[in-house]
């Protein structure tokens, strides 16, 4: 099973890029962020014609997340991150796909900081940590994927000099991410590439794409029940180089099939 996360940065304007990538790479499950489209404008029909069923939460002009599944319909289980009923941002969605639970998230950016947007980022992160604790400990396979808007360490950025005041690198943001991992989550991309400078985001300024001046802010975290099935992980960098591309590239993992369930032997047969 190939599971990917991709901040599409506007699904209506970049639908062509998305469809091209789906056709070429054929991921089984896709978590999308920053749809920037209300529910009624989500391109469900075009994606279905490409072989993908969808679950989504839209929002006009901002945010929005979706889970796509190739050939099967995602079964939605949670819409919106628990913990704050007043939060109307479309940033979190959970669904079951072929026996795997998928959590798709778009964590707040938090800029400018300090200020209310950074406070919201940290509060949202605390809600995520609280919600994720039971998911990590669950016996059900769970993948928590999305744009976390956190650069975990200095090794995950080309150079910190221009980003020291950015919310993505603040000690509070990194500390929240570290506490999330301490629950037992496996950062799949880093686990597969422990010594490689690997990026998932290149902004549109100062020729950052052309000079590979990137950041790693898109993550796929695996709970204990599924981490042993990880066999590969990577970034489809070619997507970022296409005309009109998002400033993110799809980031993916490959999981081997689950072992067959053991059949219980009755006491009578054992005797």
TrEMBL record:
E.C. code: 3.1.11.2
Record text on cofactor binding: Probably binds two magnesium or manganese ions per subunit.
Site feature Important for catalytic activity, where: 218
Statement: the UniProt record of this protein carries the keyword Amino-acid biosynthesis: no
UniProt-listed GO biological process terms: DNA repair
Catalytic residues in the record: 106, 147 (proton donor/acceptor), 248 (proton acceptor)
Highest taxon of the lineage: Bacteria
Classification via Pfam families: Exo_endo_phos
Recorded family membership: Belongs to the DNA repair enzymes AP/ExoA family.
Name of the protein this chain belongs to: Exodeoxyribonuclease-3
Protein source organism: Dokdonella fugitiva
Organism phylogeny: Bacteria, Pseudomonadati, Pseudomonadota, Gammaproteobacteria, Lysobacterales
């Amino acid at each position: 099973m190939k599971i990917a996360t991709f901040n599409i940065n506007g699904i209506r304007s970049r639908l062509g890029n998305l469809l091209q990538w789906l056709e070429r790479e054929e991921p089984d499950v896709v978590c999308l962020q920053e749809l920037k489209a209300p529910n009624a404008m989500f391109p469900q029909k075009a994606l279905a014609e490409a072989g993908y069923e969808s679950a989504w939460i839209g929002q006009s002009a901002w945010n929005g997340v979706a889970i796509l599944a190739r050939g099967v319909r995602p079964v939605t289980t949670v819409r919106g991150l628990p913990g704050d009923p007043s939060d109307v941002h479309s940033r979190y969605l959970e669904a079951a796909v072929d026996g795997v639970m998928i959590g798709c998230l778009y964590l707040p950016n938090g800029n400018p900081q300090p200020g209310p947007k950074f406070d919201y980022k940290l509060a949202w992160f605390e809600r995520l940590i609280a919600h994720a604790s039971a998911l990590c400990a669950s016996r059900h396979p769970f993948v928590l994927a999305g744009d976390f808007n956190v650069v975990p360490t200095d090794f995950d950025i080309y150079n910190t000099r221009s980003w020291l005041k950015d919310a993505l690198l603040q000690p509070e943001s990194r500390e929240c991410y570290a506490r999330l991992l301490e629950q037992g989550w496996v950062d799949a991309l880093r686990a597969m590439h422990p010594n490689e400078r690997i990026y998932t985001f290149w902004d549109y300024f100062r020729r950052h794409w052309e000079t590979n001046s990137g950041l790693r802010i898109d993550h796929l975290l695996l709970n204990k029940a599924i981490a042993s099935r990880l066999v590969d992980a990577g970034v489809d960098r070619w997507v970022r180089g296409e005309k009109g591309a998002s400033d993110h590239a799809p980031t993916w993992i490959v999981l081997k099939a689950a072992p067959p369930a053991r059949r219980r032997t009755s006491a009578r047969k054992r005797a």
